[in-house]
């Protein structure tokens, strides 16, 4: 994967400028799609993944971060990148079962997660969420 390329380049899909009344979130997504993926921060990854943007390119990058620090934090809270990753629809993982398995390994090694995050992890793993 060429990290010097943007999502627009990788997807071969240039979005027009955001509408004048776009929210900050929408404007941020538009801008981040133009940034080289190698320059994206944890917060950028969290935001884009949470909006289901560029998943085939960004999930592998997110897993690189989570391998080193499963509780990596963007601007929201500790573990917010992990939360964004595990809450993607199952279809997001259908083309990369290897990545899904790698994430499962990371998740199975975690302990003492905040309850909300543990429930998300349990759902991803197919376990019965804890009450």
Q: Helix-strand pattern, N to C? A: HHHHHHH
> How much β-strand is present in the residues?
under 5%
The mean pLDDT is: 93
Helix content: 40-55%
Instruction: Work out the count of structural domains.
Output: 1
Structural class: mainly alpha
Distance between the termini: 41 Å
Identify the overall geometry. globular
Largest sheet geometry: none
Give the total of beta strands.
0
Q: Number of helical runs? A: 7
- The whole-angstrom Rg is 15 Å
Low-confidence stretches: none
From the structure above, extract its key features.
globular, mainly alpha, single chain, 7 helices, 131 residues
Descriptive notes:
This protein is an all-alpha fold and 131 residues long. The chain has one domain. It is built from seven helices and no strands. Helix 3 crosses helix 4, helix 3 runs parallel beside helix 5 and helix 4 packs parallel to helix 6 (97-108). The radius of gyration is 15 Å and the shape is globular.
How do the helices and strands line up, and which of them pair or pack?
Elements: H1 7-11, H2 24-32, H3 42-50, H4 55-68, H5 80-86, H6 97-108, H7 115-125
Q: What's the short version?
A:
The chain is 51% helix and 0% strand. The protein has 131 residues and is an all-alpha fold. α3 crosses α4.
């Amino acid at each position: 994967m060429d990290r010097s390329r943007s999502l627009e380049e990788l997807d071969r899909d240039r979005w027009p400028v955001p509408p004048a009344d776009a929210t900050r979130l929408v404007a941020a997504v538009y801008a981040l799609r133009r940034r080289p993926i190698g320059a994206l921060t944890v917060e950028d990854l969290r935001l884009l993944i949470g909006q289901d943007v560029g998943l085939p390119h960004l999930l592998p990058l997110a897993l690189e971060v989570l391998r080193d620090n499963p509780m990596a934090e963007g601007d929201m809270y500790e573990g917010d990148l992990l939360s964004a990753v595990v809450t993607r629809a199952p279809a997001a993982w259908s083309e990369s079962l290897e990545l899904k398995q790698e994430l499962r390994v990371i998740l199975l090694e975690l302990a003492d997660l905040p309850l909300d995050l543990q429930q998300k992890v349990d759902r991803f793993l197919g376990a019965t969420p804890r009450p």
